[in-house]
Amino acid sequence: MSTGNTTAMREDYSSYIKIGLALALALLLGVSLYWWSDAARLQAVAERLHEERVQRGSQVYAAQCAACHGAQGEGGVGWRLNDRALLKNTQDEVFYSVIRSGVPNTQMPAWSVAYGGPLTDEDIRDVVAFLRSWEATAPEVQPTQRVADPQQGAVLFASTCAICHGKDGRGGEGDIPAINNPQRLRALDDAWYRNVIAYGRPAKGMPTWGTVLSPEQMDDLVALIGAWRAGQAVVPAFSGQELLDQALYAISQDDLESAASSVSEARRVVTGAGNEMLANAQAQLRAGDALGAQKTLELLRESWPLGDPANGALSYSANCAVCHGPQGGGGVGVALVNNAFVQSQNNAVLVQFLLEGRAGTAMAGFAGRLPESELADIVAFLRLWQP
């Protein structure tokens, strides 16, 4: 074979290779562009679906949750939810579970259809998405600090300490010191008094109260001593019921002076019809009619506490209507109009029920949230709905 023929048989594939490489690069670029555009499209779709979920959640929240937790999650009857620490530290599944099945022994009911509530699982996930949307701008809520109460300290002092140290700390019998003494109060600071209350002074007959009183109670006693140091007269924050019981006990012991004192103190904290009955008992004691005063006080005690239905209507609207309906027709809670339980119990039992709530239901107690006087007003208002 000749050299020329050998050369002719050699094919030049370089152009094909170039074309192939160009096509491969074009295909790769096309796939990359498609992947990039598809990922962006999918991301946009995901964001749109999430926005729609948040929007649906806001509507469910407004209809079902805002009445208790506030329109912006600021709290009310229910917990504050628009709280940065809460949102940061609580996973979505925890929110979902709490909304779905509720919290036993609180006012948080189960909202899932599976537990008798009105919301589907999808509704609940929408609400959780709405709550999560607050996290970026949620405020940092500082925990509230308890403030020691000198009036509660005065109650403790009157019932526990006065037997040795005298009424208002003015001194007792023998060499027991008067605590409410300006010179002594200036010489000894709050830390000294707190330590003496906690650890006692056994050699001087002062028992150890730190094993009996809570830290909060000792704070209240120290706050009372601080008020005395500032020259303030502090009236013990006894409830009307406690003062009524004290007055009746004093009459049973033929101690009309103490009974009159308790009735006088009761008139400072009892208003309305109850105050009028106390005024009658006070007049009877002044006239020496112990039996008449006793009957008046017993009548008041049997119907205690007497509330104001007008004030009760306002308290009901703010604290009860969300569950029991604005007109008491029921909802999450039972109907209160023509309610057999309300009709069968006296005022004291109903107030205690409102304080404690009912275990295992959405009816949580109001202890620590509403004073007994306000609960008595609510009971008086509920009486208007009974036959």
Radius of gyration, taken over Cα atoms and rounded to an integer in Å:
36 Å
Low-confidence regions: none
Number of helices, where a helix is a run of at least 4 consecutive DSSP H or I residues: 19
Arithmetic mean pLDDT: 86
Q: Please tally the β strands and state the result.
A: 0
Helix content, binned percent: 55-70%
Identify the CATH class of the largest domain.
Mainly Alpha
Distance between the termini: 127 Å
Question: Helices and strands: which structural class?
Answer: mainly alpha
What's the CATH H-level superfamily name of the largest domain? Cytochrome c-like domain
Task: Please give the oligomerization state of what you see.
Answer: single chain
Strand content: under 5%
H and E string: HHHHHHHHHHHHHHHHHHH
- Overall body shape: elongated
